Amino acid sequence: MDSTVTTGAEESVWGGGNRPLGASYGKLMMWFFLVSDALTFSGFLAAYGFSRFKFMETWPIADEVFTHVPFFHGNYPMYYVAFMTFILIMSSVTMVLAVDAGHRMKQNSVIWYLFLTIIGGAIFVGSQAWEWATFIKGDYGAVETKGGRILQFVKADSGDRASLADFAKTIPGERVAHEKNNGLWFYDEGYQPSYSLNEVKAGFQANTNILIRTETINAEGEKEVLSRQESLAKLQNATQVVEGANLIHNEYGSRLFADFFFFITGFHGFHVFSGVMINLIIFFNVVLGTYERRGHYEMVEKVGLYWHFVDLVWVFVFTFFYLV
Amino acid sequence: MAHEHKLEIFRGLLKFKSNTQKIWGVLVFLTIVTGVEVFLGITKPPLLTENSFLGMKILNWIFIILTLVKAYYIAWDFMHLRDEKNSLRRAIVWTPVFLVAYLAFILLVEGNYIYNVFKDGFVTWNF
């Protein structure tokens, strides 16, 4: 168009009131937030990738870490996480159905779909709490060496993992529990593992069926198992017994794995928790008819965007933490 | 918000009669993809784990691609990006894509470098 021509339309370009992106202010701001939040999560996941590439040969194998399903005993890698993923996708679907019902001003449908969404979110957060508890409690137990490496135990005949209770000796009466009336009352005893290092060492020497499994991953993608001789030599480097995982010690292997697990799934879980809370507020507003009076359900749509985003992030966390 | 929805996925291969139907269709698709991922993750076919492409196992490439596919359908159909204007969609999608690709590239190369330092260096860490 010629620049000298002045038309009414051109004046309104600078006159304000245009909606070049065709979306409302609230929705655009939600997208701003989501894009920046996506970058935050990407930062975490990229940092995870960095640490993983750094310790490529010794990183824990997720399939061997997350093997539990509530109410079932045995070894079921991944099933529960897959179930959690499905729950979250399902609650995303009920959310998008709620948004759709909102567009058609069907108050009762919106109420029901939002209710289901909240239930799904609650199941997910609960599952995540359960998974954390299982991870913190630990599985088989291991010992940590002077250099911070983790040594796990396997049975030589079957190749299965051996828990400390399977072979550790009980050496009676060597320590006294710290009580508050003896010594500093504000000092706790702190956590004590079920078996002392000496008990594990003595049990290992007595039981020839137990071998040590190191953190190193061999060419077949499995953790390397030492021979009996190497195992006995390696165990001399052990400095402490580790059961379960926290930010400092991790019986599953590299402690960074536990740190990232707590940090990334924790941050995501906090998002889901906030999402459930926001959904609840919206839910009550819908029940009270706030949006019915307002004449549109855009608020449901905006909260829906956040909720789908949480699902979207989980899809990536699932892949990079549990699958790859 | 515009109330009209684009009701076809797979570039028009699959057309739905209503928005609700499309949502269920996308759910079925996402469930199938997740199912495939879990199946591959549990069975770990040797064909896919033994061969690698650009320094990564084929299996992991499949996981990442399937994840991006899932992300696409969540963003396009659940978050209604399919119904938004092109300009908004591009602003939302390409900003993170460029930044994340850059960050991942830098950090992974650097991580790999440090791996080699640990491997070939003279510092003992496994003791």
From TrEMBL, chain A:
Keywords: Cell membrane, Membrane, Transmembrane, Transmembrane helix. It is a multi-pass membrane protein. Residues 1-324 form the Heme-copper oxidase subunit III family profile domain. The chain crosses the membrane at residues 28-50, 78-98, 110-130, 260-291, 303-323. It is found in: Cell membrane. PROSITE patterns: COX3. It holds the Pfam family COX3. Belongs to the cytochrome c oxidase subunit 3 family. This is Cytochrome c oxidase subunit 3.
UniProtKB/TrEMBL annotation, chain B:
It is a multi-pass membrane protein. This is Cytochrome C oxidase subunit IV family protein. It is found in: Cell membrane. It comes from the Bacteria. Its main location: membrane. The chain crosses the membrane at residues 23-43, 58-79, 91-115. Keywords: Cell membrane, Membrane, Transmembrane, Transmembrane helix.
